[in-house]
């Protein structure tokens, strides 16, 4: 086992002054890796030097990951205050009082007294069942509204007041939605999670968040090659198969996945790659401590953006919505 000293991993500073390691470990098994496999990878990742973990209630594995954290604390591998642990409220828990219940359940499962970050996983109360397919629709699904979102956010703010989470964040947002809700927030989001990989760079949203002092956490940083079947469309492009990316990987003697992580961190994103394999998750952390990409390589990767969103969100569509593009306010206005 190669151990990476967490002190040499680049750190981000959130607006509160808290530190976030620039690379975290994802924990979504993508409907194929079970809770045993994911929690075993988390146990290994702590031991190789990961200090940031991206959890969520809907990943269905927080109780097992919680045991991994508890064992690591008990064995003296790491202290609670050395970890940055994030979780997310799932879409079926946006109702009055539900956010507190969801957070309490997550804390119980993760066996923690507090979270470092708690995200609103999606900005609307639209639920889908685990393992569902692309045509699955919930008849109760509703479009985003500022009123509904702020009802959820007020509950998130109270979690900070109560000390149950140090920070709160949002995920799967758009600029129009942020413009509408940020002025209303008593406690500003400290981070926003969004899909980011070479073929989907979201430059406007990325820059918007940076200007607002909000940390950008990038999910699916490798282009999620093993994402659930419902998220695979014939038009999707595989980032790690792009010839330009492969050539850069060859020049550095690493897998193209590793180049995606280096690029993200050098760009200023905090990626949260997932891997079940010790060799891969070790490299995903180690790679940001050595052998940086050149300016020319960074520019080549910048030019690979193809606006290829992978997690399109079909299963969250409400009655009357046209198609998945309606979730992303592509014309600059919130689609209702
Ligand atoms: N907020 C949201 O709505 C949202 C949505 C999606 C995901 N997320 C979060 O983002 C995390 C990451 O996204 P993701 O898991 O979908 O995709 P990802 O990190 O882009 O890709 C993971 C895949 O890449 C492979 N991989 C990882 N490192 C590698 C390496 N060094 N060399 C070769 N292959 C490598 C893994 O295979 P092996 O296991 O074989 O290494 C795995 O199949 C999730 O786990 C979750 O925590 C959040």
What does this structure look like?
This protein is α/β, with parallel strands linked by helices. It has a single domain, classed as TIM Barrel. 33% of the residues lie in helices and 11% in strands. The protein is built from ten helices and ten strands. It has helices spanning 35-48, 62-74, 98-110, 146-161, 175-181, 203-211, 243-252, 256-267, 278-286, 295-302; strands at 11-13, 19-21, 25-26, 52-54, 84-89, 117-120, 168-171, 191-195, 215-219, 270-271. The strands form two sheets. It has an eight-stranded parallel sheet. It has a two-stranded antiparallel ribbon with strand order 1-2. Strand 4, helix 2 and strand 5 (84-89) form a beta-alpha-beta unit. Helix 2 crosses helix 3 (98-110). The longest helix has 16 residues, at 146-161. 43% of the residues are buried. NADP nicotinamide-adenine-dinucleotide phosphate is lined by residues 26-28, 30, 54, 121, 171-172, 193, 219-227, 255, 257-258, 272-277, 280, 283-284, 311.
What is the element layout, followed by pairings?
Elements: E1 11-13, E2 19-21, E3 25-26, H1 35-48, E4 52-54, H2 62-74, E5 84-89, H3 98-110, E6 117-120, H4 146-161, E7 168-171, H5 175-181, E8 191-195, H6 203-211, E9 215-219, H7 243-252, H8 256-267, E10 270-271, H9 278-286, H10 295-302
Helix pairs in contact: 1-2, 2-3, 3-4, 7-8, 8-9
Protein name: Aldo/keto reductase
GO molecular function, one term: oxidoreductase activity
Pfam family, one: Aldo_ket_red
Compute the separation of the termini in Å: 51 Å
Unreliable spans are: none
Reported by name, the CATH topology is TIM Barrel
What is the CA-based Rg, rounded?
19 Å
Strand content is 5-15%
How would a textbook summarize the main sheet? 8 strands, parallel
Number of helices: 10
Written as H for each helix and E for each strand, in order along the chain, the element string is: EEEHEHEHEHEHEHEHHEHH
* CATH class (first level) name: Alpha Beta
Bound molecules: NADP nicotinamide-adenine-dinucleotide phosphate
Oligomerization state of this entry?
single chain
CATH architecture heading? Alpha-Beta Barrel
Structural class: alpha/beta
| Overall 3D shape | globular
Helix content: 25-40%
Number of strands: 10
Count of domain modules: 1
Kindly report the name of the CATH homologous superfamily: NADP-dependent oxidoreductase domain
Q: Order of strands across the biggest sheet?
A: 3-4-5-6-7-8-9-10
Mean pLDDT score: 96
């Amino acid at each position: 086992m190669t151990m990476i000293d967490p002190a040499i991993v680049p750190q981000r500073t959130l607006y509160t002054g808290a530190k976030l390691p620039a690379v975290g470990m994802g924990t979504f098994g993508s409907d194929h890796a079970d809770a045993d496999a994911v929690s075993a990878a988390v146990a290994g990742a702590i031991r190789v030097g990961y200090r940031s973990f991206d959890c969520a209630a809907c990943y269905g594995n927080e109780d097992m990951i919680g045991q991994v954290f508890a064992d690591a604390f008990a064995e003296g591998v790491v202290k609670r205050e050395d970890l940055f642990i994030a979780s997310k409220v799932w879409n079926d828990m946006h109702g009055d009082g539900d956010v507190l219940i969801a957070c309490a359940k997550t804390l119980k499962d993760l066996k923690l007294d507090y979270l470092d970050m708690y995200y609103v996983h999606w900005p609307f109360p639209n639920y889908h069942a685990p393992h569902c397919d692309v045509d699955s629709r919930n008849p109760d699904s509703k479009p985003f509204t500022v009123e509904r979102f702020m009802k959820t956010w007020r509950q998130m703010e109270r979690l900070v007041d109560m000390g149950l989470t140090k920070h709160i964040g949002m995920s799967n947002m758009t600029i129009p939605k942020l413009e509408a809700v940020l002025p209303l927030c008593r406690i500003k989001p400290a981070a926003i999670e969004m899909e980011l990989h070479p073929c989907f760079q979201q430059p406007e949203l990325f820059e918007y968040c940076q200007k607002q002092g909000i940390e950008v956490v990038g999910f699916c940083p490798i282009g999620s090659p093993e994402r659930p079947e419902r998220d695979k469309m014939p038009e999707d492009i595989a980032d790690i198969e792009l010839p330009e990316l492969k050539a850069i990987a060859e020049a550095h003697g690493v897998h193209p996945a590793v180049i995606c992580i280096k690029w993200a961190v050098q760009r200023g994103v905090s990626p949260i790659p997932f891997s079940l394999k010790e060799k891969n998750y070790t490299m995903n952390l180690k790679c940001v401590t050595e052998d940086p990409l050149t300016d020319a390589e960074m520019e080549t990767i910048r030019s690979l953006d193809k606006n290829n969103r992978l997690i399109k969100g079909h299963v969250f569509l409400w009655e009357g919505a046209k198609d998945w593009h309606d979730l992303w306010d592509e014309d600059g206005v919130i689609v209702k």
